[in-house]
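sorry for the late reply, my laptop died twice this morning and i had to redo everyting from scratch. anyway the thing you sent over, i finally got around to it. pasting the sequence first so we're on the same page, its 293 residues, then the predicted structure underneath. double check i copied it right bc i was rushing
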Amino acid sequence: MTTTKDTVLSACRQLMQPIIGILLRNGVTHKELASICKQLYVQVASEEFGIRGRHTNLSRVAMLTGIDRKEVARIKEAWQNNEQSEQNQQHQDRLTRLLSAWHQDPDFSTADHHPLALTIDGDRHSFAALARRYGGDLPASALLKELKRVGVVADVDGNLDTSEHKVIATKRYFVPAQSDPGALLRAGSVLHDMGATLHHNLYKANQQKQQPLRFERRASNAQMPVETAAAFREFVEQEGQAFLEKIDAWLSAHEHSNPDKITPHLRLGVGTYLFSNPIEPEANEDASNEEDK
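ok and here's the structure:
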């Protein structure tokens, strides 16, 4: 008889397979992964399994995770002092927000939402003004250097040593180069967002009736000829980009006009992704169209 735990472990194998591939390609051993998993067991048990909204006490965390109380206490102290992952996500979100504004804000874009070429300095219509408005507390020079480094901002032809030197956005979204450590951190963020949505729909929405299910859908077909892959990829890139730009415009139109640390904030968004899995001929006989609803 298959138990719920058996089903969860089977799902975990599917979830972890691509993650293990990323880890192996970057020299992470199973012992290092086990150490991270132990920390996460303690963190999640502490944050999500308390009574009446409070953090879980050491004894209950030890009981839930199978880790002794002394080890739980040591791990809790370590992860509570480490905010690097959240800071990196905020940094990437800030860069994407700045690029989005460069395409949306009429002070920095055309009427049809194309970015204007901006001088580096100046009170208006400059990168410095854009950075002051959308770059948070990061210096304009640091933002520009990072955006140029990853290839989403370029110099406009002309004399780079004059005050008329201009720069322009070449992409609307900040996506680190694949060789960049930021790309790996972004991959972790993407997987976290997907997993958090699934976790919410499986458990939190059911436990807290006032929280609706989050949108999560797929459309796939297991009988596609191999030669259609390139055309489908091009179709998804065009339609997906148009969809995300529409979402981005909605978010920009509804964001806080004067955000500050006192005002409650949410990080809202939608992610899209293309998947492609080879099907062995024997397994293709009973395949049918699939659409998750």
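The radius of gyration is 23 Å.
thats about all i looked at so far, will dig more tmrw
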